[in-house]
């Protein structure tokens, strides 16, 4: 399958506000990277089951086009879900999705998406696979990027973490921005649009119960 490559100068207006920094192809050759701009806070201690309530903005980008927000496909019995608002809501009900278990894979399972290191399948039937699909005439690569502060993504700063392997193991953090991208290797990874505003506008910060 071939997808068009979007020229940032002709992208939707909200994306023109983002200044994207080029990323060397050598960076993508490393599976998991802590970039020099890391906040040096290390691995987050939480979230703790039935205690913490975190939020992270996310986007799925296909050849430079941000996709519609995903929605839950099942009742939330674990405590990691979305309201279709472009936010990952993280307030674990059980220990299995607390701490290390509060990762990107837990969220994707809740919304019916399947992500492997070389293939992404979305609930609408869209499937993207390295070595098979492309962006224009360039082969596509799956990559996950995270900015520990969502405002850094809005400002066009380099991601704090970039993964091309073990994509679903990305730990979720409070107030961060995450992009799952299928794009030409070595390309600049776009942050979620209006990431900081999404996080700041979240209002459901009170304790929640299962299936809520």
What does this structure look like?
- Helices cover 13% and strands 25% of the residues.
- By secondary structure, it is α+β, with helices and mostly antiparallel strands.
- The strands form two sheets. Strands 1, 2, 3, 4, 5, 6, 10, 11, 12 and 13 form a ten-stranded mixed β-sheet that branches. The chain has a three-stranded antiparallel β-sheet with strand order 7-8-9.
- It is globular.
Write a concise keyword list for the protein shown above:
212 residues, alpha+beta, ten-stranded mixed sheet, three-stranded antiparallel sheet, globular, disordered C terminus
Topology:
Elements: E1 2-3, H1 13-16, H2 25-28, E2 32-34, E3 54-62, E4 65-66, E5 80-81, E6 87-90, H3 104-111, E7 114-115, E8 119-121, E9 127-129, E10 134-135, E11 138-147, H4 150-154, E12 161-163, E13 177-184, H5 195-200
Parallel strand pairs: 1-10, 3-13
Antiparallel strand pairs: 2-12, 3-4, 3-6, 5-6, 7-8, 8-9, 10-11, 11-12, 11-13
Offer a quick outline of the entry.
This protein has 212 residues and is of the alpha+beta class. 13% of the residues lie in helices and 25% in strands. The N and C termini lie far apart (38 Å).
